[in-house]
Amino acid sequence: MFDIIQLLPDAVANQIAAGEVVQRPASAVKELVENAIDAGADKIQLILKDAGKSLIQVIDNGAGMSITDARMCFERHATSKIRKAEDLFAIRTMGFRGEAMASIAAIAQVEMKTRRHEDELGTCICIEGSEVLSQEPCATPAGTIISIKNLFYNTPARRNFLKSNPVEMRHILDEFQRVALANPKIFFTLHHEGQEVYHLPGTTLKQRIVHLLGNNYNQRLVPVEEDTSIIKLQGFVGKPEFARKTRGEQFFFVNNRFIKDAYLNHAVLTAFEQLLPDDTFPLYVLFIEIDPSKIDINVHPTKTEIKYQDEKSIYAIIRSAVKRSLGRYNITPSLDFDQENSIEHLITPKPFEEIVQPSISFNPNFNPFSVPGEKKSERSYSSESAYFEKKGIPNNWDTLYQISKRDTEEQHTIDLDNNAPNVTLDEEQVIKNSERQLFQIHHKFILSQIKSGFMLIHQQWAHERILYERFLAQLQNHSGLSQQSLFPETVSLNSSDFELLKELLPDIRNLGFDIREFGPNTVIVEGIPADINHNSEHELLESLLEGFKNNTAILKLDKRDTLARTLARNAATKAGTRLSLDEMNLLIDQLFACQMPNQALNGKPVISTFTLNELTERFEK
Questions:
Q1: Matching CDD domains, A to Z (predicted)?
Q2: Do the domain assignments include residue 298?
Q3: Which of 185, 207, 320, 532 shows the smallest number of beta carbons within 10 Å?
Q4: Alpha carbon of 572 to those of 447, 577, 605: distances in Å?
């Protein structure tokens, strides 16, 4: 009988490893940029075409490689970072396994030019599908230039699973932001399709955050700093009033390595207790420095998960440090008695002002029961009290009772006598009148009488349903109307949101937005949908993008449905808004014209009906 267990060929083994290391172009970008950082580069350029599918090029001025190292870096488990098993617990570099370059070379066409600073000539090596095509000397600047072309060219099934270019570009921007935040002193540039997306000179951490996320973040940041025997913590958190609906702006770094840790994230959220609105998440960029022997980073192929020896102490330190920073930097309102001059005026009167006791004047001869025909001379009013002169009671005062009696007879009345009929008018006339008898309860619900009893309508959920179906029809028919702004507003976004906006722009215009690009990461809003009343175009656009990202992550709906749902929730009349009788009638008419009037966007019922029998049983209990 033949043996059935065999060693896999290197090319097949590399493709299997590539499935763990390189899931999409963003994974390759992360590995290449981190290698450039490990090489000691202080200037790194990233050039992309077709969202990394056609070309990913990284240019750095790092240490470079010799002829032998250039060939060895594409072998599996070939690394310069570790020599023995103990080195795994003293790692401070980004990469160490020696799998990234071999995995990338197995699924792409790779060209690398590298030269050490002390060498006169460099090395150029070309590899396709783990096969070395050529290696020869070349003239190249000191450092490394590596180009990855046609990612997944030999695994078409993997390539077919890639998303659209805007989606893949957003993933690349996420990875780029993480690396750029962790290394603020390094100069980074990012070019896509010949256009410069990022130009980040070496600077401080705060300025790097502002350059990446936008100039409006300069006033949103609160510094956090704590130095203990267990960890050293530093970074920034966002003020509570600027919390967003998504978790996209939350960054934890351990020894300059980006990690995802729900346990530490909970520590930060606990520090924000009673400061954040519901379903919002704060911004934070926090760096933890810890002894490498106290952690294990070799638990995940992408090295984004870490195990700690004393995680409870780290949790407590992070929670207390963030909470103290929020209290220290004027997050809670306070009064500065040295600066507030108006308070001093309230407490100490001016010396030249004389304090006058307030006086009350009245007319002692005023008679509220005076006869209408009484002469004015008999009342002897003073000039000060002429304002209180009592007007005569109208002679036709008794007709008020006749009006009230007539109005009462025209309405539906209930006789307390059990033998009397409940309805005094014909049934159709009663229902017709009851449709106009609407009441708003606590500015949240609308009560309407119906034939069998009454119904309660949730006004916010009803308006969301109306707008959702209207926006969905506008997206399908390209029929959204726009109201032009008198003063167009310029809106600056971070690169990730700007890429998302460009992806959604055709559908957003179908809804009635009039938006055009205006420079890098900037748009001009010249009009908004005619159905929306909003004071700030910037807030409306930002909330639309945030809601879209949140709904996409949770509901997994298609793009148009998610966009209509998000805009409807942002534009709907909120609970607590006072409605007039005409507005309530219009809301009910539009609700019952919907295809699904009794289902809110969250799946709950919009209308609750109560019958007379239910009311009777409740009173007879």
A1: HATPase_MutL-MLH-PMS-like, MutL_Trans
A2: yes
A3: 185
A4: 19, 11, 17
